[in-house]
Amino acid sequence: MKTRDLGELAVRNLREAVLRNSLTTLGVAVGVASLVAMLSLGVGLQTLASQRLTRSGLFDAVFVTSQRKFRRPGPPPPRDPTPTKESRILDDDVRQQLSKLSNVTEVYPQIRFITDVRCAGKSESTSVLGLPDSSRSSGAFEGMTGAYFSSPTAEEAILQIEFAKVLSDQPPSLVGKDLTLRYAERAALSKDADDEALLDSMMGGGKPGGISIVPHEKTLRIVGITESDPSAGIGGFGGARVYLPLKTAEQLHVAQPDDVQAFLSGNPAKPSYMALTVRVRSPKDVPQVEAAIKQLGFATFSLLDATKSLRLVFTVFDLFLGLFGSLALTVASLGIINTLVMAILERRREIGILKALGATDRDVRSLFFAEAGAMGLFGGVFGVALGWLIGSALTWGTTIYLHRQNLPGVKISYVPWWLALSAIGFAIIVSLIAGLYPASRAARLNPVEALRYE
Amino acid sequence: MPALMLIQAERVSREYRLGETVIRAVDAVSLSIEQGEFLALLGSSGSGKSTLLSMMAGLDRPTCGAIRVRERNLAELEADELARYRRETVGMVFQSFNLLPRMTLEENVELPLRLAEVDRNDRQSRVGEALERVGLAARRRHRPSELSGGEQQRGALARALVNRPAILFADEPTGNLDSVNGEQILLLLREIQGSLGMTIIMVTHERPLAEKFANRIALLSDGRLVSDGAQR
After folding, report:
1. I need a labelling partner for A9 at 20 to 30 A (CA). Which of A138, A211, A426, B100 fits?
2. Most B CBs within 10 Å: which of A357, A360, A365, A448, as the mutation test of the B interface?
3. CB contact under 8 A, A12 and B102
């Protein structure tokens, strides 16, 4: 019999015993729904964790430092057998070079300084940090009062809530007000400077040139107040209380600890950085980028191993969720076996008629298989929809709970297309396996005995 | 011109085992049937006529002996070959009509065409032709429960004819019908035999009907062939 005819007959047979077949299909659907709901929870939580960690900048970043020899206290470090590359300073040339590596999305320096801040009639000393534009999507500013910087070069600032509380009893009222930074600006001295002679005498036989450090003020507009600490984590070291756009911070030319090192190494005109953060397209690109940076002669650090452990934990978690979900589907498959065995008893005569009309054993087997498969298909599709609904309800409930706790809502359940298709496929396979015994039993029926059956 | 030999039963026996007891339903029956014959297998209940018919129709296999149809021994055919024989060479009509109750008459008649994988475009015309022949073209959308006994048997006949078989087996086709409808069905069978040149083998226990419509009567008793003679 042709597949289309087989399908038509199977659907027709299912329609005839509509109540029983619907209940069996519902059993499959509930099984699939529990499987989908469990796994969607696992996938959702994994996605949520991955997104949060990726957005935190911890797992898609390589932290680069200069490979300078620095003798720490304590015993000498073991001798490194690999030949040491020439020590290089992290300056703008290196920054450009790193940004051209494949899969690198962004390279930015750590610009942080302690300064006096004047605002709302108060003057406080605190730590200021320049934030790259990618921080906008880091999740650290979700639920903030006010808004993120209007542009990467805006003369704007965001305050950390604890610092805002120091400045005002009503922190939200600070949004829109001006804030003045008083900081030490660094400038390079040229050989043509008036005090060249003085410099020369001070340098003795040293290299010419130098740096000057002058006090400077900059007024910025406060655009937002954040409760989280976006400067926390590796490369951030935490604790900053005022945030500026990175480019704005760079343009301030604030004196940095490395300036003295750069001055001594003879190139004070070029700004140098203590560390650069290299953001990559995805965490899986980290090893390749890290290797390429090491090749250039810099020291690197990343949290790649931590992501591997995280994936392992979630894989085991998903496995257990899948196993519990599959139990319900196994119970449903017993329902399919029961329904089809009952159908054979009821349709014994029909099987006899089909055989008398020339149906082969294979035709009869295929017909029962098709009916089992159809129940699996319908149950699978319905089950995926039901599972999605259960997952959405969980997300909805969780979001309400989180909102009551003054926390932003999260999507804890997620049904990706591969999960939906796999669940339907799994339901069909389980149903076909459940149909094996009834189908072969129907195919083996003796037509004469089947026709005699009343 | 000598008629072609279509079916040859050679010392065919069929035994059933019920515990320790062996029941011989058909006992060493030999029978030859020519193409175009209308043979009535006559006998009382339990005489073995339906069992013999089932074996000739390829629904059952003999315990011993051979049934040759166009020189092929049905006893030696594989299950799939036997199914093909039933599908392509044989049409069957039963006492209890055996139309599938959840299908319309048209769908019932179409069923053998589905099994034979006949092209979908040809099916409607062949179903229409078969229903036309039995006078049920107007009832094609009705379910068996909406038809009278006579109409159901005519529907079953249309289903048996739709694949244009060479042999039509009818097992007590009038058993569930009143005398008027029974005669109408047998008239139809005889007309089909005449117009299509079909070979018809009918099981019945009603001698008057067999004598009125069949060309030849084979009488069975206790599984044995008691007499075999031409009517006219």
Report:
1. A426
2. A357
3. yes
- Whether chain A has a CB inside 8 Å of the CB on B60: the answer is yes
What distance in Å separates residue A381's CA from the closest CA in chain B? Answer: 27
Query: Total structural domains in chain A?
Result: 3
Work out the number of other CB atoms within 10 angstroms of the CB of residue B58.
Answer: 27
Confidence at residue A126, expressed as pLDDT on a 0 to 100 scale: 87
**Per-residue pLDDT reduced to its tens digit, B59-88:** 999 999 999 998 899 989 999 999 999 999
- Is residue A115 a contact partner of residue A126, using CB atoms and an 8 Å limit? yes
Residue of chain B whose Cα is closest to the Cα of A350:
B100
CB contacts of A1 in chain B (<8 Å) are 114-115, 117
Choose which CATH entry (3.30.1330.10, 3.40.50.620, 3.40.50.300, 3.90.1150.10) describes domain B35-61+78-230.
Answer: 3.40.50.300
Helix (H) or strand (E) run with residue A273 in it: strand A272-273
Name the percent of chain A in helix, strand, coil, to the closest 5.
55, 20, 30
Which of B83, B92, B98 lies nearest to residue A359, judging by beta carbons? B83
| Average pLDDT, integer, range A85-112 | 82
Evaluate whether B58 touches B90 at the Cβ level (below 8 Å): yes
Dihedral of the alpha carbons of B139, B144, B149, B155, in degrees to the nearest 10: 60
pLDDT of residue A413: 85
Distance from CA of B58 to the nearest CA of A (A): 8
Angle at B132 between CA B126 and CA B136, to 5 degrees: 115
If asked whether residues A242 and A317 sit together in one domain, one would say no
- H helix count then E strand count, chain B: 7, 10
Under 8 Å CB-to-CB from B85, ≥6 apart: which residues?
B58, B69, B72, B74, B77
Backbone angles phi, psi at A89, to 5 degrees: -85, 145
SS3 A108: strand
Considering only residues A197 and B98, tell me which one the structure prediction assigns the higher pLDDT. B98
A319, A412, A427, B39, B113 from A31: Cα distances, Å: 16, 21, 9, 58, 39
pTM of the full structure: 0.64
Of the partner residues A357, A361, A451, the one whose CB lies closest to the CB of residue B79: A361
Pairwise CA distance, residues A381 & A162, whole Å: 51
Residue A169's Cβ-count burial label (10 Å; 0-12, 13-18, 19+) is exposed
Average of per-residue pLDDT values in chain A = 79
Q: A288: domain CATH number? A: 3.30.70
The pLDDT tens digits of the residues spanning A136-149 come to 776 677 778 888 88
Contact A358 B60 (CB under 8 A): no
